[in-house]
């Protein structure tokens, strides 16, 4: 397939001497302003290093940018309604929970709490929809396209994250690094093309709105954290922002293990930790099996779920974000059940690529056949979050052949692979030679939003900001902490 290239902000290459200077300044700016992470390879609690970043922003059309923002509240309404549709969740997950132990355990918490009676009807969603651009077919065929024009592209949904959607700080921070670099390059007149990004404030406002709804002036916000937070700056900036926006709200950070050891429910079903009542629980952990060491952590999750605290997400929302649910939503006519406005339904419908279930039925068999024939056109996904779990290319073949006729295959979904246009630029990473070489890269755009509501109504539904993650074009996945992705931000043209 012919690659389609995006125009760059300035002509490349940047002269070597200037480039070396910019890279050094950019690294220092990032470290000194908290666009940083804990290193996985040289780990120490006291050490942070800059997060990998792309030196200059990636071009995006105004139209594509506005469209991504516009989709957010529609997807949020969809997720909210699905999260409160018991029958649909059961329909989606009934086979998967039999073979996927992790999803099964989440499901049993969901069932337990619903049998017992939900103590807190209100849910807080801090969601992030992730997209990649797909080049329209006619553009691919037009080989004589002028390389300075932007190809016609449309957003395709990669996934909706309903739990622990990070980069509320690193998203805005990416813009700030690149703004600084552009100012150092005397590109002042181009700065207005970097759209404002207030994701951090928007997400924290969402938490504070939920805190207020809970109605306890002494209540605190509990952030559920991993044993080791590599993405520490992103998390801490949420905490600092909350402190700034409302100095009276106490913020706790606890692992599931600590919550298991320290938290109790009082007779009013309030979640209390060492005497503090928790109004809002914000999960930045709990989405991966390894984060539950044993019964203690599962008990902690159940305890939180049974409590009156407003959860971000509650177990409904967590389940609604499962890849399996997203696959069922992609089926013809399903989103239209939830989004009654035809125009809105069409907008999000157009953002779907084909996603197929792998149940042991005719439809599943057809999907297996498709993937075996052209594995390079698909991504095979399990019910997992956090990156690094998917299977690509020829490995899809061996994975599918192995589980061809077994129930295990129902724990996976098959998704058409998106092939985004390619941008060229410099990626700055720790421990890499300076100056960096020009790289070919592709981006994934994440839009943040806040939604608050219960089974009856949606009280607040808004889009609050964005993040752009860019990876080398040849990499399957581009997790920033994982090492192949880098912070980036859009430059509107
Ligand atoms: P996770 O919840 O683990 O982040 P994703 O569905 O986002 O799972 O997949 C992880 C990464 O895999 C994405 O960030 C993207 O880089 C890549 N990816 C996922 N789906 C597709 C797809 N359909 N086409 C191309 N790349 C994809
Ligand atoms: Mg995810
Ligand atoms: Mg993802």
UniProtKB/TrEMBL annotation:
Domain Glutathione synthase substrate-binding: 220-320
Pathway noted in the entry: Sulfur metabolism; glutathione biosynthesis; glutathione from L-cysteine and L-glutamate: step 2/2
Binding site for ATP: 323, 381-390, 392, 415-418, 444, 471, 477
Domain of life: Eukaryota
Cellular component annotations (GO), alphabetically ordered: cytosol
Coiled-coil positions: none
Cofactor or coenzyme needed: Mg(2+)
EC code(s) of this entry: 6.3.2.3
Keywords: ATP-binding, Glutathione biosynthesis, Ligase, Magnesium, Metal-binding, Nucleotide-binding
Cofactor note: Binds 1 Mg(2+) ion per subunit.
Catalysis: reaction(s): gamma-L-glutamyl-L-cysteine + glycine + ATP = glutathione + ADP + phosphate + H(+); gamma-L-glutamyl-(2S)-2-aminobutanoate + glycine + ATP = ophthalmate + ADP + phosphate + H(+)
Molecular-function GO terms, alphabetical: ATP binding; glutathione binding; glutathione synthase activity; magnesium ion binding
Keyword Magnesium recorded: yes
Binding site for Mg(2+): 385
Binding site for substrate: 235, 469
Similarity remark: Belongs to the eukaryotic GSH synthase family.
Subunit and partners: Homodimer.
Function, in words: Catalyzes the production of glutathione from gamma-glutamylcysteine and glycine in an ATP-dependent manner. Glutathione (gamma-glutamylcysteinylglycine, GSH) is the most abundant intracellular thiol in living aerobic cells and is required for numerous processes including the protection of cells against oxidative damage, amino acid transport, the detoxification of foreign compounds, the maintenance of protein sulfhydryl groups in a reduced state and acts as a cofactor for a number of enzymes. Participates in ophthalmate biosynthesis in hepatocytes.
Record-given protein name: Glutathione synthetase
Organism this protein belongs to: Phyllotreta striolata
């Amino acid at each position: 397939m012919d690659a389609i290239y995006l125009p760059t902000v300035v002509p490349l290459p940047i002269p070597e001497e200037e480039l070396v200077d910019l890279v050094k300044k950019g690294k220092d700016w990032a470290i000194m302003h908290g666009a940083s992470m804990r290193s996985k390879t040289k780990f120490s609690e006291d050490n942070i290093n800059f997060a990998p970043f792309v030196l200059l922003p990636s071009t995006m059309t105004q139209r594509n940018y506005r469209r991504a923002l516009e989709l957010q509240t529609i997807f949020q309404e969809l997720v909210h309604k699905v999260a409160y549709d018991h029958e649909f969740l059961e329909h989606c997950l009934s086979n998967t929970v039999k073979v996927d132990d992790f999803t099964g355990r989440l499901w049993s918490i969901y069932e337990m709490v619903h049998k017992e009676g939900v103590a807190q009807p209100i849910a807080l969603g801090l969601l992030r929809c992730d997209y990649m651009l797909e080049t329209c077919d006619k553009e691919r065929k037009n080989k004589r396209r002028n390389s300075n024009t932007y190809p016609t592209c449309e957003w395709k949904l990669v996934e909706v994250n309903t739990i622990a959607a990070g980069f509320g700080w690193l998203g805005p921070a990416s813009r700030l690094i690149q703004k600084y670099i552009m100012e150092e390059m005397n590109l002042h007149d181009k700065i207005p093309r970097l759209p404002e990004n207030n994701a951090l404030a928007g997400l924290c406002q969402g938490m504070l709105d939920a805190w207020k709804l809970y109605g306890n002036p002494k209540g605190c916000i509990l952030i559920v954290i991993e044993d080791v937070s590599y993405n520490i700056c992103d998390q801490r900036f949420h905490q600092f922002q909350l402190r700034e926006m409302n100095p009276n709200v106490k913020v706790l950070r606890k692992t599931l293990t600590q919550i298991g050891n320290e938290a109790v429910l009082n007779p009013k079903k309030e979640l209390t930790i060492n005497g503090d009542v928790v109004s809002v629980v914000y999960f930045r952990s709990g989405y991966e099996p390894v984060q539950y060491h044993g019964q203690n952590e599962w008990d902690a999750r159940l305890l939180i779920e049974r409590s009156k605290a407003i959860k971000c997400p509650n177990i409904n929302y967590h389940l609604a974000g499962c890849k399996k649910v997203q696959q069922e939503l992609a089926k013809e006519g399903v989103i239209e059940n939830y989004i009654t406005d035809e125009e809105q339904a069409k907008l999000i419908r157009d953002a779907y690529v084909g996603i197929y279930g792998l149940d042991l039925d005719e439809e599943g068999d057809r999907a297996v056949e498709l993937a075996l024939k052209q594995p390079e056109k698909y991504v095979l996904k399990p019910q997992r979050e956090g990156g690094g779990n998917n299977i690509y290319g020829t490995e899809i073949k061996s994975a599918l052949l192995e589980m061809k006729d077994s129930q295990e295959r129902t724990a996976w979904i098959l998704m058409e692979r998106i092939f985004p246009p390619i941008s060229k630029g410099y990626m700055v990473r720790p421990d890499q030679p300076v100056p960096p070489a020009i790289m070919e890269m592709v981006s994934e755009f994440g839009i943040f939003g806040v939604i608050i509501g219960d089974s009856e109504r949606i009280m607040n539904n808004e889009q609050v900001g964005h993040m752009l993650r860019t990876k080398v074009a040849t990499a399957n996945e581009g997790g920033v902490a994982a090492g192949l992705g880098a912070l980036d931000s859009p430059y509107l043209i």
